[in-house]
């Protein structure tokens, strides 16, 4: 689902980009926090169709890192960990970034082979193509390659 | 890559003279054709690895080399701790000790085909596969520590395997020097319910026919008979290994400047072997190796149980179990002197030659089995380590065909249903919880495994023994 600025421009969105053996996840947003939300959606969309995931349960996540790109990596790896440890799949997220601290929430449900048909299991977020940057004023990009 | 950029050592070996910060040359084992197919990143990565402190002899790439994380997949590099050598989490990867094992049967192709659907259904029902699948056993704290230290030996002691399996596994089923305390609580929690699970992606359990024998003497010693079937399992250290890879990659990347290591690529995250961080990583990585060995032993036990329901007399003895994402401490001869080295094999398989220390007596005269997985359609190969391999790349060989197409591109080229149906027409049964996953693993997404294996033999890395054709594939 895309989000729009007041001017009606579609800014928040996610996409995948190719990598030889694995997969790139990329989020765009008007702010770094929104880009982080979209990158999380891209991560989970690599596993299953987000439209099939019910947001029954919320998990809180907090991380701190000395740079935005490390914070993105930590955020995505936290989601990978929570999904693995709780046997869940997420589809919606909230993120706020203050200084070097991320406070986030992930919404989802227990993974169901029948309803979600998960395609891959993400092992972790990598340093490959890891970038968080402002493409132009009001458009942030957050991305990295994930090992699947 | 254009071969004119390299110094040609032979038809299957190419050298990059050290330039810039490289401490040793880089050597790529590939035919000119395979070299031409390799992505540009292989050049950058194999030369980056050559810059790491304490690297010995050369930075190597195998015939199936492709873009990895820091190291190319198919990368081999050895380091001397006494020369300030490093251990690299990037050089081992996220799926620590991912590997392959093959169990033997006396069953023919026709015996398997007579029950193909039912056997496939039973294996699919009994082997936990895909995201979210849980294993039969949940490990409490004590069992977790015992598993991380005991590896496949622990699994056998718990009743998930046989004592005679152990000398058919590298390091006799248990990596020494594992430190369960170096493994985080998160990694342990991630693994608690995952023992004996296959995972997903390119992991699989296959029933295969020994379709062709290339070396009758070695095949006989390995227990392979043309027309008989084998059961092959490909998976690794599951969530525990992934979490260890994630955590140490980050910690090493951040710590590198303090060690005076100038990383050409953050993904090459490493630490001096003799540092506290290096030692802690080695302890955790060895624990993850044990987790993978235990995991494959348990899945082997499940496969035996399923087969017993169809063929009561079949014992499914273990032929061999190899790992291909590890850093192992080995002794190698360098300029006439024996040196202890930390050998990283990232997407590469150990290929000890005849009479190498550590091989079981029955296999020692012939070299270590090297199990090379292809795609569902192309089949797999069994090779044997050679004496020549020691001098090539510390007794290492390739591990598979390697992808030639991204997952994204594969799902655009094929549908999972299409792949399953086409393989079914060829007599191959594929079972998977995800059609998208099947599309990503389509045979056409992989390089030609035959070309990779032929090159490995021509380069002296390992010797072809048998070709295996897929009959049933359970994939995650």
Instruction: Work out the helix count of chain A.
Output: 3
Order of helices and strands of chain A: EEEHEHEEHEEE
* Oligomer category: heterodimer
- Largest interface, with Cβ-Cβ < 8 Å? A-B, 37 and 49 residues
The CATH class designation of chain A is Alpha Beta
- Average per-residue pLDDT of chain A, rounded, comes to 92
- Structural class by sheet pairing and helices of chain A: alpha+beta
Q: Could you list the spans of chain B in which at least 5 consecutive residues all have pLDDT below 50?
A: none
Task: Give the overall shape of chain B.
Answer: globular
Strand content of chain A: 35-45%
Kindly describe this structure:
The complex is a heterodimer of chains A (148) and B (476). Chain A is an alpha+beta fold and 148 residues long. Chain A has one domain: Archease domain (Archease, Possible Chaperone, Chain: A, domain 1), CATH 3.55.10.10. Chain A has 3 helices and 9 strands, in the order βββαβαββαβββ. Chain B contains 14 helices and 19 strands. With 476 residues, chain B is an alpha+beta fold. The longest helix of chain B is centred in the middle third of the chain and has 33 residues, at 276-308. In chain B, helix 4 crosses helix 9 (276-308), helix 6 runs antiparallel to helix 8 and helix 8 runs antiparallel to helix 9. The model of chain B has no long low-confidence stretch (mean pLDDT 95). Chain B has helices at residues 32-37, 40-49, 109-114, 116-126, 141-157, 185-191, 216-222, 238-255, 276-308, 387-393, 407-413, 416-425, 435-440, 449-458; strands at 7-10, 13-16, 26-29, 59-66, 73-79, 86-88, 99-108, 204-213, 228-235, 270-272, 318-323, 325-334, 337-346, 349-350, 369-372, 380-385, 396-397, 429-431, 462-475. At the A-B interface, strand 2, helix 2 and strand 7 of A face helix 6, helix 8, helix 11 and helix 13 of B.
């Amino acid at each position: 689902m895309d989000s729009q600025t007041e001017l009606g421009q579609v800014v928040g969105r996610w996409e995948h980009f190719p990598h030889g053996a694995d997969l790139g996840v990329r989020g765009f947003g008007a702010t770094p926090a929104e880009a982080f939300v979209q990158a999380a959606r891209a991560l989970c969309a690599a596993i299953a169709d987000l439209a099939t995931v019910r947001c029954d349960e919320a998990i809180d996540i907090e991380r701190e890192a000395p740079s935005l790109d490390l914070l993105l990596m930590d955020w995505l790896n936290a989601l990978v960990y929570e999904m693995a440890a709780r046997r869940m799949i997420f589809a919606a997220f909230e993120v706020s970034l203050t200084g070097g601290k991320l406070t986030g929430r992930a919404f989802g449900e227990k993974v169901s082979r029948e309803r979600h048909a998960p395609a891959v299991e993400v092992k972790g977020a990598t340093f490959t193509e890891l970038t968080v940057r402002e493409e132009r004023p009001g458009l942030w990009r957050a991305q990295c390659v994930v090992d699947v | 890559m254009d071969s004119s950029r390299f110094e040609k050592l032979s038809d299957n070996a190419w050298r990059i003279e050290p330039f810039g910060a490289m401490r040793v040359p880089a050597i790529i084992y590939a035919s000119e054709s395979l070299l031409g197919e390799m992505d540009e990143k292989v050049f950058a990565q194999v030369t980056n690895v050559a810059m790491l402190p304490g690297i010995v002899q050369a930075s190597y790439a195998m015939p199936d080399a492709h873009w990895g994380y820091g190291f190319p997949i198919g990368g081999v590099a050895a380091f001397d701790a006494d020369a300030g050598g490093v251990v690299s989490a990037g050089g081992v990867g996220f799926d620590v000790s991912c590997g392959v094992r093959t169990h033997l049967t006396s069953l023919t192709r026709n015996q398997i085909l007579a029950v193909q659907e039912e056997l496939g259904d039973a294996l699919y029902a009994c082997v936990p596969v895909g995201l979210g699948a849980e294993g039969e056993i949940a490990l409490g704290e004590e069992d977790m520590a015992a598993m991380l230290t005991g590896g496949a030996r622990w699994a056998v002691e718990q009743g998930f395997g046989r004592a005679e399996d152990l000398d058919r596994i590298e390091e006799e089923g248990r990596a020494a020097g594992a430190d369960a305390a170096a493994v985080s609580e998160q990694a342990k929690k991630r693994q608690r319910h995952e023992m004996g699970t296959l995972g997903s992606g390119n992991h699989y359990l296959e029933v295969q026919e020994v379709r062709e024998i290339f070396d009758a003497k070695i095949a006989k010693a390995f227990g392979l008979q043309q027309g008989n079937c084998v059961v092959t399992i490909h998976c690794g250290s599951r969530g525990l290994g992934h979490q260890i890879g994630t955590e140490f990659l980050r910690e090493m990347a951040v710590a590198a400047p303090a060690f005076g290591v100038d990383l050409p690529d953050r993904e090459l995250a490493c630490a001096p072997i003799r540092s506290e961080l290096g030692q802690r990583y080695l302890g955790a990585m060895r624990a993850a190796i044990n987790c993978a060995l235990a995991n494959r032993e348990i899945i082997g036990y499940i496969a035996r149980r399923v087969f017993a329901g169809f063929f009561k007399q079949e014992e499914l003895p273990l032929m061999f179990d190899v790992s291909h994402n590890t850093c192992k401490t080995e002794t190698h001869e360098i300029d006439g002197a024996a040196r202890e080295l930390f050998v990283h094999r990232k997407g590469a398989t150990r290929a000890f030659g005849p009479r190498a220390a550590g091989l079981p007596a029955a296999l020692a005269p012939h070299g270590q089995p090297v199990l090379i997985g292809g795609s569902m359609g192309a089949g797999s190969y069994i090779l044997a380590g050679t004496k020549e391999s020691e001098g090539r790349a510390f007794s290492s060989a390739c591990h598979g065909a390697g992808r030639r197409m991204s997952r994204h591109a594969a799902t655009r080229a094929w549908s999972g249903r299409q792949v399953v149906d086409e393989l079914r027409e060829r007599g191959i049964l594929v079972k998977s919880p995800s059609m998208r996953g099947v599309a990503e693993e389509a045979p056409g997404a992989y390089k030609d495994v035959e070309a990779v294996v032929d090159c490995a033999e021509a380069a002296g890395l390992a010797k072809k023994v048998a070709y295996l054709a897929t009959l049933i594939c359970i994939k995650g």
